[in-house]
Automatic annotation (TrEMBL):
Keywords: ATP-binding, Cell membrane, Membrane, Nucleotide-binding, Transport. Residues 4-254 form the ABC transporter domain. It is found in: Cell inner membrane. One of its GO terms (molecular function) is ATP binding. It comes from Chelativorans intermedius. This is ABC transporter ATP-binding protein.
Amino acid sequence: MALLEIENLTVEFETAAGTLRAVDGISLCVEEGEVLAIVGESGSGKSVSMLAVMGLLPWTATVKADRMAFQGRDMLNLEPAERRKIIGKDISMIFQEPIASLNPCFTVGFQIQETLRQHTDLDRAARRRRAIELLEAVGIPDPQERLGSFPHQMSGGQCQRVMIAIALACDPKLLIADEPTTALDVTIQKQILDLLMDLQARTGMGMILITHDMGVVAETADRVVVQYKGRKMEEADVLSLFERPQHPYTKALLAALPENAVGDRLPTVADFSLDDTPYTGARP
């Protein structure tokens, strides 16, 4: 049984200008221990799709799907209390901007322990020990001292590590990492990605990695879903996608990699018509 199955997911927002369809019929699945990358340019519906799974979209959003199931359980029709038992425990998410996601009014130790208080039966002393273990596991120096630090007292890379610690606190079966290296310098980006992949390999959890960096996809993913303007253009295992891309948009994304620059001019991705039929057939 797949960890997560999504069939024909549609997300619409009511705006002053009318109804905006941000996600248009997306289908995907994630198996246990698998890393699925979702790629595409900004605005392609990658984050919105996963926020719909987490139930974190605003009230202006309308979410519909033929199926949205986690380990066979219907996520769309679960009672809110039952859904809250799953979200944050069995399914966790690392958000794009750790500084914005962490509460500036509480210490990082409190925020890690709050997740444990909500989803486990650990007492206060055990929650503190677990928080220290998590900070140590994600590479935070002097974890006992850092429990009392506020987010503004930590660097961007350290805050991202704290977000990872919170996401992993309850040993989730599925981790959604939404552009986990955004706004970090190159060295820290590699450290964070190496940390995530090491933790994924050791725990065996499934992972959905949202990114626009095809280099990251090549290094980390087992399968890839390519999105554009809310639709899935192509899906393939990572080797097939890079060696034999089928959809014109996928080919354009790969052609726009910096190593394909001509002189001092970087390649660009042209606008595509959604009349282009997404590639769904067998790969050669």
